[in-house]
Amino acid sequence: MSAIAETNEGPNPVYNVLITLHPGFDTMDFTGPLEVLSTALHNINDRASKAFKCSFVAASEHTVSAQGCSLRAHMDYEEAHEDLADYDVLIIPGGGTENVLQKKTEPLQLISAFAELQKSDPTKERTLISICTGSLFLAQQGILQGLAATTHPDFYTKLEIICKEAARKGDLEQTDVMEERYVVNNARFALGENEDENPFILKKRPDGRRKSIARKGSNAWKESNRRRESIAMRASLKLGGLRVITSGGVTTGLDASLYLVSAMVSHDSAEEVARVMQYSWNKGVTVDGIDV
CA end-to-end span of the chain, whole Å? Predict the structure, then answer.
């Protein structure tokens, strides 16, 4: 369960985040989301109102990134599997993917376990995020079947190939590979029938490409939390309503993480994180949103 932090406005949850590490991972795939989530506050005027608590998991105590950065994990994968139900968010960095895909090592098994956990227990809202080529791991495990996804532009073709192979082995559902900063499946809010009247949808872009339906921000998450949640509605979604976010190249991990802050905390909180980081939030797209 998430921890609860007291604020002047009442209790707010502290979301538990688990970030996976594997040899050769990309450093910024890891540090980008970590920076965003570690900075996010429920109350932007109260530095004690941290919204997320991040932990790291790896096969060994120290894991070296593609850039030569050595990171120390809080736990190994065996412990992570045992405590997986305690986590609200699982983040999968990319980089060094070939060895993992060929040998079928972690974090592949943890990804599948997290998805199965949501299907067996849709009462809890969980989010799975991949950064850059981390989406190849999700594709390998069949997570992206029937969903939309993105990855680093140099790997669009490879992602399509892996997704097609997964579909052939699975239920034949294809994956819509999109050229976007990030792609969100199973969002928390409803898109509605009339997109022109939906405040969460940006207008068609000048280049004529697909509309971005990234969340523009509101207190919808907190407001929906005051209502009885439709667990049955969430359970009817793919993967038991697991929110699946894939992002493109390394800097898009910042954008996807800012989206997550806006969705789980508030738009104001996400904007404040971007301001502190002196970063311009580039929004992606959201598909098949539903307000539970």
Answer: 19
How big is the chain, counted in residues?
292
Per-residue confidence (pLDDT) for residue 170, from 0 to 100: 81
The alpha carbon torsion through 231, 143, 184, 31 (nearest 10 deg) reads 110
pLDDT in tens, 60-102: 999 999 999 999 999 999 999 999 999 999 999 999 999 999 9
Position 187 scores a pLDDT of: 82
DSSP-assigned states of every residue in 178-235: --SSEEEES-SS---S-GGG-TT-PPPPTT--PPP------SHHHHHHTSPP-HHHHH
Could you tell me the pTM of the whole model? 0.86
Check: CB of residue 22 under 8 Å from CB of residue 96. Answer: yes
Q: Burial letters for 272-289: b for 16+ Cβ neighbours within 10 Å, e otherwise?
A: bbbeeeebebbbbbbbeb
Question: Distance (Å, rounded) from C-alpha 256 to C-alpha 245?
Answer: 7
DSSP H helices, the chain, are 27-39, 77-82, 97-103, 108-120, 135-140, 156-169, 220-225, 231-235, 252-264, 267-276
What value does the CA radius of gyration of the chain take, rounded to a whole number of Å? 18
Rounded CA-CA distance 180/163 in Å is 17
The bridge status of strand 182-185 relative to strand 243-247 is antiparallel
Residue 184 confidence (pLDDT) above 70 = yes
pLDDT of 171 reads 81
Q: DSSP assignment, residue 170?
A: T
Work out whether strand 70-72 and strand 62-64 pair parallel, antiparallel, or are unpaired.
antiparallel
* Residue 43 CB partners (closer than 8 Å, separation 6+): 7, 8, 9, 12, 49
As given in the structure block, the two tokens for residue 9 are 């406005």
Q: Are strands 127-130 and 176-177 parallel, antiparallel or unpaired?
A: unpaired
Per-residue pLDDT tens digits for 148-182: 999 999 999 999 999 999 999 988 899 999 999 99
